């Protein structure tokens, strides 16, 4: 079903989604839809790539769409993992799927070494028991040493 909406270029995706669901109430089979949060927008970018838009705070003009048409879908797979892969792709300058397909021995060696470092850190954290895991999730905001830093003493004299 196509629902035509007029939106300003600066409108964030969350507002467009709310407007869409308000308009969708007028259509038959609306009762079959789930909550708004169960859906994401998908569009074709200027690079001719299909992109899923998880960050609903982004504005329509920031999406760099080839044509201002968005599709609403239920995301398949783990949402958090997809968001993380997208952020990693921005950090390394290429999509993660392209990075995974690289057969360069140096890249593969780097990935193995990073994986082993992460595995060691995880085993160390799990080896410390519940206390170690709690410190990882909720790091303390206190100094480990009972001695005050030297720059604090000068302020205490005043």
Contiguous uncertain segments of 5+ residues: none
Largest sheet: 3 strands, antiparallel
Instruction: Indicate the overall shape.
Output: extended
What is the count of DSSP helices, taking H or I runs of 4+ residues? Answer: 6
Strand fraction: 5-15%
Judged by helices, strands and strand pairing, the structural class is mainly alpha
Strand order of the largest sheet: 2-1-3
Description:
With 158 residues, this protein is mostly helical. Helices cover 46% and strands 8% of the residues. It has 6 helices and 3 strands. It has helices spanning 13-24, 79-92, 96-101, 105-127, 129-137, 150-157, and strands spanning 40-44, 50-53, 71-73. Strands 2-1-3 form a 3-stranded antiparallel beta sheet, with no helix packed on it. The model has no long low-confidence stretch (mean pLDDT 83).
Highlighted features:
three-stranded antiparallel beta sheet, 158 residues, single chain, mainly alpha
How are the elements arranged and paired?
Blueprint: H1 13-24, E1 40-44, E2 50-53, E3 71-73, H2 79-92, H3 96-101, H4 105-127, H5 129-137, H6 150-157
Antiparallel strand pairs: 1-2, 1-3
In a nutshell, what does this entry contain?
It is built from six helices and three strands; from the N terminus they run αβββααααα.
């Amino acid at each position: 079903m196509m629902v035509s909406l007029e939106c300003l270029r600066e409108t964030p995706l969350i507002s467009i989604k709310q407007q869409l669901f308000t308009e969708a109430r007028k259509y038959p089979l609306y009762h079959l839809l789930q909550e708004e949060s169960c859906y994401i927008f998908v569009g074709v970018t200027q690079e001719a790539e299909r992109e899923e838009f998880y960050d609903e705070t982004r504005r329509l003009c920031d999406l760099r769409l080839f044509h201002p048409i968005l599709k609403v879908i239920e995301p398949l797979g783990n949402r958090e993992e997809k968001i993380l892969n997208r952020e990693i792709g921005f950090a390394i300058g290429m999509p993660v799927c392209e990075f995974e397909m690289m057969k360069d021995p140096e890249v593969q060696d780097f990935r193995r070494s990073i994986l082993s470092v992460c595995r060691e850190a995880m085993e160390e954290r799990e080896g410390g028991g519940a206390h170690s895991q709690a410190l990882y999730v909720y790091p303390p905001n206190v100094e480990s040493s009972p001695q005050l830093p030297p720059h604090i003493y000068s302020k205490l004299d005043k």
